[in-house]
Amino acid sequence: MQLVIASNNKGKIREIAPLVAGLEVLSLQDIGFTADIPEPYFTFEENALAKASAIYQFSGKNTFADDSGICVNALSGAPGVISAHYSGERDDEKNLQLILTELKGADDRSAYYKAVICLIWNNEVYYFEGVCNGQITDKKTGAGGFGYDPIFIPDGYTQTFAELSLEIKNQISHRGKAVRKMVAFLNEQLAVGEENSVI
Ligand code: IMP
């Protein structure tokens, strides 16, 4: 079964790939899509739908898109949907430094990552969501992950997502949770037993 992933974000794709290992996942490069996909909306759901629809229309193939971000409670949920370019630039280092500056001296450092997957499957739209709660550190630590991972410690752990392995991140992350829900849905849709399940 082919499924297009409507993303060029290498960090996301690296995380999603092992979770959908039983599917033939096509990248935007595989389908020859080179343009930028606009994400003009104020909710993860709308942006995920915009990305999935653009690629579904282009390719005619079943498609999913993830829209995600980090929401900091002391910043009224910012950066949220603008996480990728919070500092005004698509620059992970500048973006995370801005949060560290804004939280200087803050008592409440709680935050959560949220991911919404929009799947367009046989012309119907489905959503799957995942949330991961944690705390923002006061300095960056670790070299793995991407985006805000060097400043985010998930609840129940003492290391940042940039220090934890990909396996652990995928077990507890917003994206891991959302992707597993989608995979469970796809297995149900295929209405098959063990031998034909996608994972
Ligand atoms: P978008 O979904 O392409 O709009 O961008 C999501 C942005 O949210 C990324 O570019 C990161 O800045 C941030 N983000 C989402 N998920 C993660 C994650 O798992 N780790 C670190 N940053 C993330």
Give the key terms.
199 residues; alpha/beta; Maf protein; six-stranded mixed β-sheet; 5 helices; 6 strands; binds inosinic acid
The average pLDDT score comes to 94
Spell the H/E element sequence: EHEHEHEEEHH
Low-confidence stretches: none
Radius of gyration: 17 Å
The CA-CA distance between the termini, in Å, is: 12 Å
Helix content: 25-40%
- Sheet with the most strands? 6 strands, mixed
Total helices: the number is 5
Shape: globular
Q: Quickly name the level 1 CATH class.
A: Alpha Beta
CATH architecture heading: Alpha-Beta Complex
Strand composition percent: 15-25%
Record field, number of beta strands: 6
Q: Which ligands does the model contain, each kind named once?
A: inosinic acid
Describe this structure in words.
The protein is an alpha/beta fold. It has one domain (2-198): Maf protein, CATH 3.90.950.10. 31% of the residues lie in helices and 23% in strands. It contains 5 helices and 6 strands; from the N terminus they run βαβαβαβββαα. It has helices at residues 10-19, 44-59, 92-102, 166-172, 174-190, and strands at residues 2-5, 24-26, 63-72, 110-121, 124-136, 152-154. It has a 6-stranded mixed sheet. A hairpin with a 2-residue loop joins strand 4 and strand 5 (124-136). The protein is globular, with a radius of gyration of 17 Å. The mean pLDDT is 94. Bound molecules: inosinic acid. Inosinic acid binds at residues 9, 39, 67-70, 83-84, 95, 113, 145-149, 173, 175.
